[in-house]
Amino acid sequence: MRFEYANPYRSPNSDLLANDGGSFDSRHLLFTVFGFNGRIPRRVWWIAMLLVPVVLAAAVQVALLTSQGDLADFLILAVPVTLAFWIALSVHVRRFHDRGKSAWWLLVGFIPAIGPLWLFIELGFCRGTMGANRYGLEPS
Fold this sequence. Notes:
- There is one protein chain.
- The protein is an all-alpha fold.
- It has five helices and no strands.
- Helix 3 (about 40-65) packs antiparallel against helix 4 (about 70-100).
- The longest helix is centred in the middle third of the chain and has 28 residues, at about 70-100.
- It is elongated.
- It starts with 13 loop residues before the first helix and ends in a 15-residue tail after the last helix.
């Protein structure tokens, strides 16, 4: 018998976003990138932390090469920067959930010098809680 944990923080639409593993579901990918509920393993955090800056740098380079010096340039830069921030925030929150901690722990990052280093070690190298916690089942 499998232990199912009733998550009080679960979104009412989370069943729509669940992937049964049988086929690719684009809604699951969107939830993985933009959602804030649930847990993610270290490897997903590392992939996001390595890919987001590369994609952001490429978008900025394209924007700078096509620069005309008007408001459209600002919008061209604002969209990828906003998306990168949102994705980074999403994976940080869900990585803290995997550690069994609240997203409020992100505020530690504002402590000069020590905060970002602590976040890097906590989210990138420490194992998540084994089994279910209040944020959901252990990610695979």
